[in-house]
Amino acid sequence: MTEATAPKGVDPTVPSPARIYDAMLGGKDNYESDRRVLGLLSDLYPHAATTARENRAWLGRAVRYLAGEAGVRQFLDIGAGLPTQENVHQVAQAVDPSCRVVYVDNDPVVLAHGQALLAGSQNVAVFEGDLADVDAVLERARETLDFTRPVAVLLSAVLHFFTDDQDPYPLVGRLRDALSPGGHIALSHGTGDIGSDDSKTFTDAYSQRVSSSLFLRDHAQVAAFFDGLEPVEPGIVHAVHWRPEPGTEPRPVEEAPVYAGIGRLV
Fold first, then answer.
1. Cα 74 to Cα 71: distance, rounded to the nearest angstrom
2. What does DSSP assign to residue 160?
3. Can you list the domains of the chain with their CATH numbers?
4. What share of the chain in percent tops pLDDT 90?
């Protein structure tokens, strides 16, 4: 994208987490400011783009599990990011075209592109919302999703933008409490507990240059988001080790320092 095409109200000189992530995935819906930050981050941590791709691959595997083995037909993707290949609705509807998917994001560029690209898609909705205002997100989502039946809430690489002072645990708790039995929460979260000093340098540089700070958590802190839920095998593990595709060799966790898991409400 060029700065001249920026939607109204968007400052293309301010890097955005969603657009940086899009650049990491090789997308084109990003500005020069986003690419500059990605270049800097990649210099500090050469596996930045790999981490994004592995997180995205985990999301695809998680949705295939949820729509397939778990039989879920409703999905709420909060912090959905820019549309790319293997979007949630494409993965879920490949299992069953009746699957309903709601995408939520607070980035105006995400909303503009999402609404344009998904126009005409069956059983798909996109709206503006922020996990910080979880009750408003749930109220709007109920216009499309039936929470008396199982819903899978997806929080892919979202919670590490919340500091401890923002206390994200009750937000996830509100989502859990809104689910009916058979509902799931699937989440991934960056971590710095892999024995590398690069993580602090990376997070400091990110937080200084992007509109959102990055707050990494260890395994125990990530596992706490699943309180009140039954972990789906293999539990809360590094994303590369969560049900990898048969016959593939997972990348070293140092190249994708992300924890991921799914919890089920019983």
1. 9
2. G
3. 3-264 (3.40.50.150)
4. 62
Number of H helices, E strands in the chain: 9, 8
pLDDT digits (tens, 9 = 90+) for 178-202: 999 999 999 999 998 765 556 666 6
- Give the 3-state secondary structure of residue 121: coil
- The encoded tokens of residue 169 equal 């645990």
- How many residues can be counted in the chain? 266
DSSP letter (8 states) at residue 45: -
Question: What single-letter amino acid sits at 243?
Answer: R
Pair of tokens at residue 207: 């937080």
Please tell me the predicted confidence (pLDDT) of residue 202. 67
Tally Cβ neighbours within 10 Å of residue 149.
14
For 86, list phi and psi in degrees, rounded to 5.
55, 50
DSSP 3-state of 20: helix
| pTM attached to this predicted model | 0.89
- CA dist., res. 204 & res. 26, Å (int): 24
How far apart are the C-alpha atoms of 16 and 109, rounded to whole Å?
Answer: 9
